[in-house]
Amino acid sequence: xxxxxxxxxxxxxxxxxxxxxxxxxxxxxxxxxxxxxxxxxxxxxxxxxxxxxxxxxxxxxxxxxxxxxxxxxxxxxxxxxxxxxxxxxxxxxxxxxxxxxxxxxxxxxxxxxxxxxxxxxxxxxxxxxxxxxxxxxxxxxxxxxxxxxxxxxxxxxxxxxxxxxxxxxxxxxxxxxxxxxxxxxxxxxxxxxxxxxxxx
Length: 200
Prior knowledge:
Layout: H1 3-6, H2 18-28, H3 32-54, H4 58-75, H5 85-116, H6 127-145, H7 149-160, H8 165-172, H9 176-196
Helix pairs in contact: 2-3, 3-4, 3-5, 4-5, 7-9, 8-9
C-alpha cells in the first residue's frame, strides 16, 4: 500500500498495482470474466485469510469467501472507482463476514436456549441427532474435497449458494448446459462416496 493510500487519499492510476490496472482495463472493455479472474488471482488468498480471521469456522469462512466473489462479480458493472478495487473487495468481504457472524450468533443463542430449557421442544434435534448431522456434514465435506475443483465449485454454487445454472455460467464462464451435466455426473459420485463412509 502506498503512503497516499495509507493516508486515505485516492490512488492515481499510475500508483495502482498492476492487477488493479488490468482489472480496470477489463472493466472498460466490459470483460467482466477477466476482471473477476484477475481479482480472484490477486486477492483471493487475502480475502480468505481475512474471512478466516473474521469467521472462526473454516467452512463458514470458505462460504463467505465464495459469496464475496459472487457478489463482486455481480457488482463489477457498478464499480464507481471511488476507491481501489482491493478496498472495494474487502468492503464486500467485511459485510458478508458480519452477516455470517450474526447468523452464527443467532444459531448459538438458539442452541444455548434449548440447552437451558427444562424440556426440549419436539422439533429440536437431540444430541445424538446433532452428532449424526455433524458426521454427515464432515463426510460430505470430505467427499466434496475429492471432486475436481471446477466440479466442486459448480456443485457448491448450485446447492450451497442456490445459484441457477445461468448464474453459475456467468461466474465461471462455462455454458449452463455444461455446468448442469457436470453437476449431474458429480451427484452419483458424491452418493457413492457417502455410502462408503457409512452415510446414506
